[in-house]
Amino acid sequence: MSFDKVAIIGLGLLGGSIGLAVAQDLPGTATAGYDADPAVRQRATERGLANTICDSAADAVADADLVILCVPVGAMGTAAAEIAAALKPGCVISDVGSSKQSVLTALSAALPEGTAIIPAHPVAGTEHSGPDAGFAALFRQRWCIITPPEGADPAQVEALSAFWSALGANVEVMDPRHHDLVLAVTSHLPHLIAYTIVGTASDLENVTRSEVIKYSAGGFRDFTRIAASDPTMWRDVFLNNKEAVLQMLQRFTEDLTALQRAIRVGDGEQLFDHFTRTRAIRRSIIEEGQDDDRPDFGRSDHERPA
Amino acid sequence: MSFDKVAIIGLGLLGGSIGLAVAQDLPGTATAGYDADPAVRQRATERGLANTICDSAADAVADADLVILCVPVGAMGTAAAEIAAALKPGCVISDVGSSKQSVLTALSAALPEGTAIIPAHPVAGTEHSGPDAGFAALFRQRWCIITPPEGADPAQVEALSAFWSALGANVEVMDPRHHDLVLAVTSHLPHLIAYTIVGTASDLENVTRSEVIKYSAGGFRDFTRIAASDPTMWRDVFLNNKEAVLQMLQRFTEDLTALQRAIRVGDGEQLFDHFTRTRAIRRSIIEEGQDDDRPDFGRSDHERPA
Predict the structure, then answer these.
(1) Does residue A298 belong to any structural domain of this protein?
(2) Which of these, A84, A278, B116, B221, could form a disulfide with B198 (CB 3.0-4.6 Å)?
(3) Among A266, A291, A304, beta carbon nearest to B141
(4) What was the ipTM of the complex prediction?
(5) In a domain, B304, yes or no
């Protein structure tokens, strides 16, 4: 099986990128898009984020074989309820949310029994959000994690995998609970920490905000990029993956306390050993093609104007 | 006054970049370089990191009007002692270290009374280190903070400012103590946190290291870049700017605890407000030209191969 028509609900960075990627990589597949914000629908029409931009979610999902919910994870239940009555029998409902247990629960509660719910999470994004942020190559060489519930139809899981592969992603099937643990450490905790330190830096009395901005190239600016991500999306992630995030945060705090103590007592050997160990992880990420080895990720530094 | 000959002690990322930048931007100025590691001297000769690569630090500083120590801040005293007897009378001794009070103390102790010591810190760098990492444009559009001690000769401070301006940097003069506080938050704390989280992620039992690497594009990979920085350099920074780092760490921990509590009790409003506030800082950094606004800093994502 494959999907002749895909409906995209929510036309921000992720939804827009899916629409553009389908147009490029699956030209035989029709897309219909919807966003709750009329201004976003207008912009989506101008950019051609889907073949048809509809004025209601129900219109967008009519006749769709695959519906992808691209809304914040806290809005999944409401979005699903809006389309429940309009779904084509046998269609697959999926999403792109960053927490998977909560999404499965919300969709199962909002949709009629027997609906094929197969949550997914493409691990890709940028710091930009909204209908202007999407681009067709967003998913290339990125992982998409599919988290089918028990009893999911293998043919439908296979079709969803093939869909994401066609957009350039590497697909992995994972248990939703394990997904939430893995992403808590590779994505949610980094975001929480980046949001924290950017807040800390802007609240100091003895260092001005303008100094923080001026001298940000010493490391701080990378955190500001992550801390510029969509606030609604991230609020929902933390509220919906609470247990795993708090667990990882506990581990992080223990490790930070140990390094803090090493600094306080002047234990250079412990610091050096720790800082050497972390280099290996970076090498592996470069080798696996998950980042760019050029200095500063290939920021335009080398061609800075004189 | 200006400098006819500049000696560079330490030929890694910073020292090498200074040599290349002088050759490009101050072609009338001679450079002599030295590194304690013979393999680095060999590579520096091949890359032409200075006009002359010497076999001793004393040879390199002979006749130099400006000596720049580009060694880890913990090695400043030793490096200064090595050149003390060979300095040309009236020459200026500077450095590129990330902590300024400790460097001033170490240089003052190691050099004869009356030596003109004017510490400086170009706030620029990449995650790469060693003699192959340097490039001429490293300092363009970056800030260089000069921290003259009380009683420094204004003409010499002016000459050092002019030198850094010629390499493309914006120069700011600052009290060493204030420098250490500002950099603790814009550079040292971000590095400590990045080193911590990368360590945390690689020590988990319930998430494998290969999963951490695979799904790093969700945010984690940015931290690994910072945590790939030179371990010796960073060990020394933390040991030499201990008070300011511990002070900033205390503030960070308080703020993290507040967000942790908001997650635990499900206070979405507090999370949303915090995450919205941090976006403004990012905008200012972009406006001030201290980072690249392209998604993912202009990583090669948009041209990812199919």
Answers:
(1) no
(2) A278
(3) A304
(4) 0.91
(5) no
